[in-house]
Each structure stands twice: as C-alpha cells, then as structure tokens.
Fold this sequence. Notes:
The structure is a single chain. By secondary structure, this protein is an alpha+beta fold. It has helices at residues 12-18, 60-67, 96-102, 139-152, 158-161; strands at residues 7-8, 23-29, 35-41, 44-45, 50-56, 70-77, 82-93, 120-134, 163-168. The longest helix is centred in the last third of the chain and has 14 residues, at 139-152. The protein starts with 6 loop residues before the first strand and ends with a strand.
Amino acid sequence: MSDKSPVTHDLTQLFDKIKEVRMAMLTTTDEHGSLHSRPMATIKPGKDGALYFLTDSESAKVYEIKKDSQVNLSYSDPSSNVYASVTGTANAYRDEAKIAELWSEPMRGWFPKGKDDPHINILKVTIEKAEYWDSPSSFLVRAYAYARAVVTGERTKDDDVNQHAQVQVK
C-alpha cells in the first residue's frame, strides 16, 4: 500500500496546524536504547524553522539528547482532529538572551526562580521531516462519509475528508 500524501518542503502549514496545540510528547532514546516520552510545552516555532522549549539542564532528556540527538515530537488535538509527528535533531544549551525572548510568566511553575534560573536550558528541535493529519470534525462531514458508505458500499477516501501531508526539510 503506497502513501500518496503530498510532500512539501514548506513548514508553514505544519506550524499552522500545531500552533494551538500547546503540549507535545517528546520522545528520546534512554541509556538502555528504549524510547522515553514525556510532555513538553511548545513555546513557538523559530524563524529558523526549529521548535523551541525550555527545560531543566539536569533533566533526563538533556542527558539522553547528548547521547542521541534524534527525537520525535507528537502533537494531538482530538477536539479539532489535528495530529502531527515531527522528527528532528535536538540540542540543549544555555542562551540567556534566547531564554529571555522565550520566557513567559506561567513558566515560573517549572522554574520558580524565573528566567534567571541557572538550570534553564533551551531545547531546540531542528526539524528534518514531519507529517500531519487534519480531519474535519463537523457532523456534516461525518454524515457525508456515512451516507457515501451506505449508498455506494465504498469507504470514503481519505482525500475526500482529510488533509494529510508530509514535510521533508532535509
């Protein structure tokens, strides 16, 4: 079965899909070679096409990224039927100017000392490839799919009701 989804090199639509999805699941590889996932709050995409997060410099993810920088980010918003998977290379580093740029007061919950906390690191994920799915959630679209199946005996094609694309950056 071949995947005929369109391929693009433009990250704009991906960023548009995930802009309202605040949390991503970041997956790294732990010291035993097993996958390790945890939620991360996406701050915003950078002008450089990377995704940025703030993290504690002493967290397991920083250690894991130093050993293997390949990561995956999964975005899911079931209420609007938007899903995305992002593969890239992660880098954790300290940059006070970038921390100040990305900082917002709600982050104090994780960093009580504020943006000057010496344990804050930038976690930058440089995107290599991504895939997103956007399925309309309206009753009419679901009713159309049902009616088509009943009348024709055929399943509704994904292209009829879904938007799916692959993004290749490298």
